[in-house]
Amino acid sequence: AAGTMPRRRSPASDMGRGLPLLLLPLALLAAPARAEGGTAAAEEVQIEVLHLPEACSPKSKKGDLLNAHYDGFLASDGSKFYCSRTQNEGHPKWFVLGVGQVIKGLDIAMMNMCPGEKRKVTIPPSLAYGQQGYAQGKIPPNATLIFEIELYAVNKGPRSVEAFNQIDKDGDKKLSELEISQYLKEEFARDGKKRHPSAHDEILADIFKKNDHDGDGFISAKEYNVYQHDEL
Fold first, then answer.
1. How far apart are CA 82 and CA 214, in angstroms?
2. Which of 38, 130, 166, 222 is the 20 to 30 Å CA partner of 157?
3. Does the global pTM surpass 0.85?
C-alpha cells in the first residue's frame, strides 16, 4: 500500500502536537513504498555514527515513538532540501518508527538508535522518492539523499497494546468517543500546554474520521492497530 505523501498539517494536528497517543497519523516526508527496478534489493542505507552517548538506552525499534531533528541534503550537489528546525516553531519531529510515516530509508536508518545519538545516513533513490522524485519537496528523480539526524527521545509507541488498554476503561476491546475524550483531557492536563478551547473537539473528531473505518462510532482494536506488532 502506498504511504501518505507530505501534506499541510491541519490546525487540529498542530494543536495535538506532542500527544503521547498520537492517534492521528503524522505525515512526515512519507513516500510510497516501492522497489525501483531489479537493483533495489541490492541498495542499502549507509549509516555513519557521528556521536554515541555513553548511556545508550533504550535503543529504538519498530513501533517506538521517536523525537528527532534532522536535515536533508541532495547527495548530488549537497544542497539542503529539508530542515526540521525551520518548521513547527523549531520543535523536534515526533513520529512512529517503522510504519511508513517517513520514507523507508529513514525507517531503516533510525533503527537501533539511542537518545542523544547523532547519525549521518545516505539513502538510495529506491528507499526514498525513486524514479518519480518529489517536486514539491525539491527532490529530483533518482535522487540519493543524505540526512543528518539527532535523536532526542525513544518512547513506547502510541499503538501498543498497553496504550489501547489504558484508554479502554471498560475493557470491551473498543474505544468509545467518551473514552478517547477522557484520555485527551488527561493528556492535555499532563502536558500543561495552552490550547484553544476548540482543540479538544477538533482533535477528537479528527481521530474518529481517520480511525473509525466502519463508521460504527467506536475504534476497534483492529482499527487502532494500524500496523502489525512484531510481538503479536
1. 37
2. 130
3. no
**Residue whose cell numbers read 517506538:** 64
Q: What would the grid cell of residue 203 be?
A: 482533535
Give CA torsion, residues 130, 135, 141, 143, to 10 deg: -80
pLDDT, tens digit, for every residue of 10-22?
333 333 343 333 3
Model confidence at 91, in pLDDT bands (50, 70, 90)?
A: confident
Concatenated DSSP letters for 164-201?
Answer: HHHH-TT-SSEEEHHHHHHHHHHHHHHH-----TTHHH
Nearest to 3 by CA among 33, 35, 43, 40: 33
Higher pLDDT, 74 or 155: 74
- The CATH number of the domain where 198 resides is what? 1.10.238.10
Angstrom distance (rounded) from CA 84 to CA 67: 11
Residue whose C-alpha is closest to residue 109's, from 41, 28, 46? 46
Residues 68 and 122 in one domain: yes
Residue 2 within a domain: no
Question: To which H or E segment does residue 154 belong?
Answer: strand 145-155
